[in-house]
Amino acid sequence: TYSSIVAPIPNSFTGDFAIDSENNLWYTNWIPDSTGLLLKFNIEKYKQDSYAVGTGIGLDLSLEDYFEVYDFPQDLNTANGLSIDENDNVWIVDTSSSFFFKFDPIDQTFTKFITSPPQKSTYGNFTGIIKSPISRPYWSQTDMNGNFYFNEQTSNQLAIFDINKEHLVEYMVPSKNPNWADCEDKSNSDCGVAQIFGFDVVRDKIWFTEWAGNKIGVVDTKKPLPFSVKIDVESITLKKGETKTITLSVNLPSSNTGDINFNSAHTASTVTMSSDILVSHTFNKSDEIIVSVTASEIALSGDYKLLLGVFNPEVNVSKYIDVTIEP
Question: How far apart are CA 128 and CA 124, in angstroms?
Answer without folding.
Answer: 9
